[in-house]
Amino acid sequence: MKNYIVGFEFSLGLVHEQSQVARFFLQRKFFPCIAAFAAQGIYWAPLLVLAVLIVCPIELLAQVAGIYRVDTKDSHVEIHLFKGGILGSLADNHLITLTRFSGTADLSRTSPWRAELSGYADSLKVIDPWGDPSERKDVQQTMLGPQQLDVSQFPVIGLHSVSFDPTGEDSAWHLTADVKLHGVTRKENFALDCHLAGDQLRIHGKKMLKLTDFNIQPYSRAFGAVKIKNEFEVTYDIVLNRVN
Q1: What gap in Å lies between CA 55 and CA 174, rounded to an integer?
Q2: What is the pLDDT of residue 105?
Q3: Sign (positive/negative) of CA torsion 129, 207, 55, 240?
Q4: With contact defined as beta carbons under 8 Å apart, do 225 and 87 qualify?
Q5: pLDDT tier at 117, thresholds 50, 70, 90
Q6: Are 173 and 194 members of one domain?
């Protein structure tokens, strides 16, 4: 009674430019104007907030610019399936990990960001820390088989970003992406937590998706008394190392 996956063809889309002219204007022209407004008793807080929001993306681009490669040893993508039905207590939740994937990212200062992460459906592995090994094997066979994932027909699952928007906080970014799973592509929104440490960029977060949105029927038995819920959760911790 069990299922699924998620893999990734991860592509980030972002158009920003780092401009020394813009920085000069903000530092030499914009901020003195704010000071003048304050001296005259004019309410300037909104202007200050606007200035910070403009400067932050410029600083961010300067820091993260470069070509990155996904560190597949330190990166993790997991899928969480949840039990349901009136007799759901007789079933188990399932934890699945993607074990084979690769990718690169080109985070340019002056052009749209581009990155790819490809995962392979047949590398999905059920790692439930509960139950016996034979049950996990049965769950995996069902998940990869023609009634569920059908990995022979749909070997690669992907995520391709179409926009990437930093917020006022350096680590909180928004991603809109085309998610391809089981031959179906859907646009989804993601909230990402991103951190840069030296030459390493870490992106992590989680996202709820629905099986039926990708033409996958949730596994069930006993006329639905025991089943897997339609919603499943993907958690990801992607590490990218700068190589140039």
Answers
A1: 18
A2: 81
A3: positive
A4: yes
A5: confident
A6: yes
Q: Taking the alpha carbons of 190, 109, 63, 57 in that order, is the dihedral positive or negative?
A: negative
Task: Give the integer Cα–Cα distance in Å for 146 and 152.
Answer: 8
Is the pLDDT reported for residue 158 higher than 50?
Answer: yes
The model's pTM is 0.72
CB 98 within 8 A of CB 118: no
pLDDT bucket at 239, cuts 50 / 70 / 90: very high
If one compares 55 and 72, the residue with the highest pLDDT of the two is 72
Given 11, 42, 63, which residue is the final one in a domain? 63
Rg (CA), the chain: 23
Q: Provide the pLDDT confidence category of residue 25 given band limits of 50, 70 and 90.
A: very low
Helix/strand/coil for 60: helix
Phi, psi of 37 (to 5 degrees): -60, -40
Could you give the CA distance from residue 52 to residue 209 in angstroms, rounded to a whole number? 34
Going through the chain in order, the beta strands assigned E by DSSP cover 66-70, 76-81, 83-84, 94-98, 101-107, 114-120, 124-126, 156-166, 172-181, 184-197, 200-210, 220-221, 226-228, 231-242
Total domains present in the chain: 2
Q: Which two tokens stand for residue 24?
A: 């000069």
Q: What is the pLDDT of residue 219?
A: 80
Contact 87, 222 (CB under 8 A): yes
Tell me the CATH number at 89.
Answer: 2.40.128.110
Domain that holds residue 145: 66-242
